[in-house]
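Thread: quick sanity check before group meeting

JM: Hey all, I'm pulling together slides for Thursday and realized we never actually wrote out the predicted structure for the chain we discussed last week. Dropping the sequence here so it's in one place. If anyone has concerns about the input, flag it before I start.
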Amino acid sequence: MAWNLDAAGYELLVYNRSDGPTEPFVEAGIDAADSPREVGQEADVVITMVTDDEALAAVLDGPDGLLTGINGANTVIQMSTVTPDATLAAAETVREQNSRFVDAPVSGTVGPAEEGTLTVLAGGDEAALDDVEEILAAMGEPIVRCGDVGDGARMKLFVNLLLGDMMSAYAEALTFGAAQGLELDAMQQVVEAGAVDSPLFRIKGELIAERDFEPRFPVDLQFKDLRYANEVANDVGLTLPQTAAARESFSAASAMGHGDEDMTAVLKYVESVAGVTVGE
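JM (edit): ok, ran it. Output follows.
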């Protein structure tokens, strides 16, 4: 995402809580900040992309946090997958510093991020969204305006809830077929020929056939998003039985040591329960 901003001609200042990810930028002549505070002091527009609610709070708060650097001339675009509550809390603290806040998480994994085709789920003041639209467009397309601040976060949990449920069901279906002696290629052909066909099943089916579990979107992050979705559902008095079951499957896959592997590794948990291996 940062490289796409660079390619679009924006002057960058990058920061990461560990040094490794910033090294390629420094080697390319792009400045790296020593703290979030420095980013807030130097950048007109600040983009946060971190793992979870706790990471967002860590970047914002503290003696060298972003909130100590922004001063009323900034727009903060929050693009992480976090809860609506964390988003609203972040927005309030940013606004207390007289700066603007845009809620804009993204849907998509490594490929769309590299290609600049992430789906941007934007929430916030229309004028603020208008002002940063070209910046968002450098990283993603389409830009879906979801409503107010918080609605982008809600939309992200909606789509990742569906993603996790689909992946868990797909893993179970493949294991169900393999346990009865069905060939993976034939199962995949039936999936792609019918009403259940989707880009997810096509892409992940190819990876499963190759037993390629390199992380595009890791198990642990999918588990985190399903956990968030269930927590938000509980807050509004809603029960999500399928999502709760999917959450437990991803949790079990993580407990087996597959947390850093691609979300397709939820299949390994289902396989272990069934005592079969899909594709063999």
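AS: nice. The chain is about 55% helix and 10% strand. The chain has a mean pLDDT of 97.
JM: adding both to the slides.
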